Amino acid sequence: MGETTVNPFAKPSLWRRARELPLVPITVLLIVFIIPAFFADFIAPHDPYTPNLRSRLQPPVFFGGTWEFALGTDRLGRDILSRILHGAWYVLAVSMIGIAVGVVVGTTLGLVAGYVRGWFDGLVMRLVDISLALPAMLLALALAAALGASFLSVVIVVGFALWAYFARQVRAEVLLLRNSDFVARSMVAGASHTRILFRHILPNVTNTIVVLATLQVGIAIMLDASLSFLGIGIPRPTPTWGLLVSDGRDFIATDWWISFFPGLAILLTVLSANMLGDWLRDKLDPRQRQI
Amino acid sequence: MPLLRFLGLRIASSLFALLIITIIVFLLSHLSGNPVDALLPDDATQEQVDTFIRDWGLDEPLWQQYLTFLKNALQGDFGTSLKWPGQDAMGFVLDRMPATLQLGGLAILISVVIALPLGVAAAVYKGTLIDSGAQTFALLGQSMPNFWLGIILIWVFSVWLGWFPTSGMGTLSHAVLPAIAIAWFQISALARLTRSAMLEVLDAEYIKLARVKGVSETKVVWKHALRNAAVVPLTYFGILAASILTGSVVIETVFSWPGMGWVAIEAIRGRDFPVVQAVIIAYAVIYMLSNLVVDLLYVIIDPRVRHG
Q1: What pLDDT shows up at residue A91?
Q2: ipTM for the complex?
């Protein structure tokens, strides 16, 4: 008898959940972005930094080149594929640390502002408005001019571009949650404010944070790529993807592959990250759905 | 007067944001160490250094230095350029401003002309091939780096087909490719917004009434529905201004378009801090002004805001 009853509250089996995953974006992300970021040393066929003048300007494999340099080589004879693979780590590090900065700063300020309200809330919301009103590019220009571009300056710019979205969203949800029964009950039970905020309210906003963070992976990567393209990102010789595109821009007429493939890597990564973010939003937080 | 109060508040908050920007810019010039190193050429004589310290009050406390900076900034005085000797920093930036505004204006025009019909078509033919085509296009547009698109456009349309010049400024045909590269991202964002706004409006009672009355479908869609749906994309124009600004920095560099964005990057490469300061403030002012214009348009188009 136990075998035939169907429990309507049972969680779907692992297999059914796995089948619902958007497999195409995940596969593309793994192949283009995540595996290269961690294993470039093992899978890259050549050294990404050492010039090799004997192999300079080799075309890609199906355009008159060979499998040795599958995506061609640049003007110094460096293998484009190897440079893209090695660049993935820096793109991943900048976007993840930048988003982490945005999440931590934004969530903390949003939690506290929504919980204590009063003047602190007013101050945080003003800062949110200003931050949303300031294009991140302006801060990037100022930082690059004053301190010189570095890994740190890019992370600051990405964090600055994103924190306000988290603060605003988290605060809005805390405003609703703080009036709910479970908060009142924990207060009666004698829980401290810190405990209520971080043990009781925070878990209720994590879905929102995860969805927002995933949707912002694309924004963060794009920002990082634009900065390194302009030469105000992580400095040379680090082969970040924006810099790789910029390397070939004067030679697009003759040696198109130098710019083309790094840009394609950015496109594929951002596209799959956006698709994954959309999917996750529909799954975890359908209220935020726009269309 | 709720309307005046609304506008007054908006202006006040814009000015406050501008003030914050001046503080950030001011502090950054000090973060880099001695501001004399950042703001004067390396080969400046002792006499020049002394005059500079006196003029900008650098021997005074920080807050007083900031007030001097703010006072000079209000008069448009950001010092002289280091990279382009003898040029007044703000004057130099202002000279380049029309080029940027032309490009930005053309980009806005292109995005509206393409995105509105695209969004309307996607909504009217919801669930058909047109709709999914428009959605795919939007997804692609939002994931494509604009500098890369610019390079690809040069490759295809200038090098292969020879339709447009590769870079520089002069005729309208110089502006076409960079404007498309800037507009690309906006087209997808605007089309998505227009689509969802139209879907909502097309469902409304008064649209059904118009149809029952026998108003032609063209008129229902383009006159009755679009006019109400257009409010939603309009709110996006503030964000549009920001991303066109960001786009102009990147795309002007790709196409060697001598506007403010190109100046900004050249100035950073030449460690020309006075010009960088001037560009940032100029960008911020343009940005705040365009946001105010959006607020005004919003009031004019949507009576609910006007009388709310």
Answers
A1: 92
A2: 0.84
Q: Which residue shows structure tokens 């810099």?
A: A243
Q: Do A270 and B145 touch (CB under 8 A)?
A: yes
∠ Cα B243 B245 B246 (to 5°): 65
Nearest to A270 among B143, B246, B273 (CB): B143
| Residue B38: closest C-alpha in chain A | A146
- Counting residues of chain A whose pLDDT is more than 90, the rounded percentage is 30
Q: Under CATH, which architecture does the A88-283 domain have?
A: Orthogonal Bundle (1.10)
Report CA Rg, chain B: 24
Tokens 């919003």, residue located: B298
Name the pLDDT band for B1 (thresholds 50, 70, 90). low
B63-66's contacts with Cβ under 8 Å and 24+ in sequence apart are B65/B26, B66/B23, B66/B26
pLDDT of residue A1: 42
Of B16, B29, B280, the CB nearest to A138: B280
| pLDDT band for position A17 (cuts 50, 70, 90) | low
Would you tell me how many other CB atoms lie within 10 Å of the CB of residue B114? 19
Is some CB atom of chain A closer than 8 A to the CB atom of B21? yes
The segment with the largest mean pLDDT, out of A46-55, A235-244, B207-216, is A235-244
Residue in A closest to B35 by C-alpha: A146
